[in-house]
Amino acid sequence: MKAGNVVYNEVADLPETIPVFPLAGALLLPDGRLPLNIFEPRYLRMVDHALAGSRLIGMIQPRFDSPEGEGADPALCDVGCAGRIVSVSESGDGRYLIVLHGVCRFHLREELAAGTSFRQCRILPFPADLQEDRSAEEVDRVRLLRTLRAYLEANELEADWQSFMRADNGMLVNGLAMMAPYGPAEKQALLEAPDLKMRAETLIAITERILARREGDARRTLQ
């Protein structure tokens, strides 16, 4: 896996501990790119910390079943994705505009009492993410594109269809998964899919379920 000018070939190429950015509804996948607008002071410090070290940040969602306690950091999901900062710029009002390039998913082993305002965790990377995903050849591309077209038409949305047609299976599946306007639970299911083929099938199943629900709502409205 190459992110920027750095190649990650095996788990040993990644640090055991990285800062993490809990953000509900955000999805970063291996080889995907996620732009972020960083403005909170503790996350500005997180970016500074990452830039001074490995340049890696773990994107992870807060658990959906955890009650929000006032002043308490929410519990985190078990799986996130590490990304390398490949672009950073400063705005005129104190924000960082960064782009993360997805390197690999990880299991969260434990959160550390690091003494920093941002959270840091010990991680266990997914070794398979650092290698070529051969399941890409098994993606049902026709069904995926058909489902995407149905979703766009149902929501009266336009898209650059030619770009979808030109994209290889990996870029198509991961790009659609990251862009899909779905909730945190659906995003987590897409993240945790074991390979590209299963991620495509999960994306199709989620989209078909949403379309079916929308059609059912429309029928009830007409009755």
In total, the number of strands is 8
CATH topology of the largest domain, what is it called?
Archaeosine Trna-guanine Transglycosylase, Chain: A, domain 4
- Principal-axes shape call: globular
Terminal Cα span: 54 Å
The top-level CATH class of the largest domain is Mainly Beta
Total domains: 2
**What's the overall average pLDDT, rounded?**
91
CATH-level-2 architecture of the largest domain: Roll
Can you tell me about this structure?
- The chain is α+β, with helices and mostly antiparallel strands and 223 residues long.
- The protein contains 6 helices and 8 strands.
- The protein has 2 domains: 129 residues, Roll (Archaeosine Trna-guanine Transglycosylase, Chain: A, domain 4), CATH 2.30.130; 89 residues.
- Helices cover 35% and strands 25% of the residues.
- Strands 3-5-6-7-8 form a 5-stranded mixed β-barrel. It has a two-stranded antiparallel ribbon with strand order 1-2.
- A hairpin with a 7-residue loop joins strand 7 and strand 8.
- It is globular, with a radius of gyration of 19 Å.
